[in-house]
DNA sequence: GGCTGCATGTAAGTCGTTACATGATTTA
DNA sequence: TAAATCATGTAACGACTTACATGCAGCC
């Protein structure tokens, strides 16, 4: 996973750009976005917030809006330095940016960057997946002799999933390219129903 | 990720049941199977092998087959105790078993267990994914007011991917159920082309 | 003769989880 | 008033990665 520390920082900065928030709330949102699996623990989040406070990336909000409900809680907001750092991190389009978690976070905050960056991240991600696919299929061809049926099925399913993801990325890339001109708005055509009505348990 | 240590142990034991191997080879295969992302490093594998040696789960093979090419390498094979441990781990059908990596490994070695276990793992995995889906969609309904287009697209794609996986699991479960009688063979109907011809970069 | 790939290992450090500890507030 | 949830934090621990160190073997 490498360097999720930076991932958390980026995510926190991004969320706080959507409005001041306290730690508990941040954790909930964080788990919702990178939540397709592991949960982020307090033991991770709070130290990270402390660190960001020390680095002046975020600061505590003076007066909490409501005069009632004076619960013990610390609301944070980004500082100017934090905004700078956020932009810097978002424009870092190296290999680290196409890693699973890092990619998701960047994508989530794509509205905050311009099209050039978006395209580079999207394309980088796509070629990384493509490489994975090629590598696996190459090695698969070598080993394929006596394959276990379950092993084979797992491979098949894995390859298929990645292929779908590649197509998804290609669609997004085309959408970005098609939106030439306005470099920060409406890049995504309605791909499907906004609220999927399936998942009837 | 929690407890990948056990995952590695299980994977190594499983692979060694398919024949003796040395560390380097193990790593290659391991990366191929759980390789949809992070690579397992030597700093992880070798200490794990040492630990398994100490625990008498595996042992060094005396004479390497070929009389030529006497390269420095240590070939391992499972002991009886290792086989026992492998069976034990494979029949552990708790929440840990439906975690991403753990599930993949177990599935990969499904041929080594009986149908009862397979079904429990498959069903556990499915209901875990279902829960994730429900939780996200419930919370999504609450937050959905002013959603960022990219954030929305990410959610949509995520939900769709998990839904596909649920369908995949359901198919597998039906296949297992349909194969009543022979509890260890031919559970999977040919779902598609064995070697997918796509992926023309 | 040098580069690349095979092969094994260790040490240090990072990152994050688990478990613990505490307490306020809302709801049944 | 008890239980659930909100809310913040720390200490200990574990797992894995990075970087380092070493050396053989095959190929150009």
From TrEMBL, chains A, B:
InterPro entries reported for this sequence: Metal_resp_DNA-bind_regulator, Tscrpt_reg_PadR_N, WH-like_DNA-bd_sf, WH_DNA-bd_sf
Entry keyword set: Coiled coil
Domain Transcription regulator PadR N-terminal: 12-87
Chain residue ranges for the region called Disordered: 178-201
Coiled-coil positions: 119-153
Pfam families xref list: PadR
PANTHER family cross-referenced by the UniProt entry: CONSERVED PROTEIN, PADR-FAMILY TRANSCRIPTIONAL REGULATOR
Protein name: PadR family transcriptional regulator
């Amino acid at each position: 996973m490498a360097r999720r520390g930076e991932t958390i920082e980026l995510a926190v900065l991004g969320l706080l750009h959507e409005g001041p928030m306290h730690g508990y709330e941040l954790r909930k949102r964080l788990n919702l976005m990178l939540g397709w699996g592991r949960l982020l623990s307090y033991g991770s989040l709070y130290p990270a917030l402390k660190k960001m406070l020390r680095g002046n990336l975020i600061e505590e909000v003076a007066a909490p809006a409501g005069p009632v409900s004076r619960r013990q809680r610390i609301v944070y907001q980004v500082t100017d330095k934090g905004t700078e750092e956020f932009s810097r991190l978002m424009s870092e389009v190296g290999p680290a940016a196409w890693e699973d978690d890092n990619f998701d976070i960047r994508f989530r905050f794509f509205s905050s960057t311009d099209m050039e960056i978006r395209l580079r991240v999207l394309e980088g991600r796509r070629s990384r997946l493509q490489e994975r696919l090629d590598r696996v299929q190459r090695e698969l061809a070598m080993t394929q002799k006596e394959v276990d049926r379950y092993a084979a099925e797992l491979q098949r399913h894995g390859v298929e999933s990645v292929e779908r993801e590649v197509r998804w990325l290609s669609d997004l890339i085309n959408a970005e390219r098609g939106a030439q001109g306005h470099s920060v708005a409406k890049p995504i055509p309605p791909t499907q129903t906004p609220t999927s009505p399936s998942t009837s348990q």
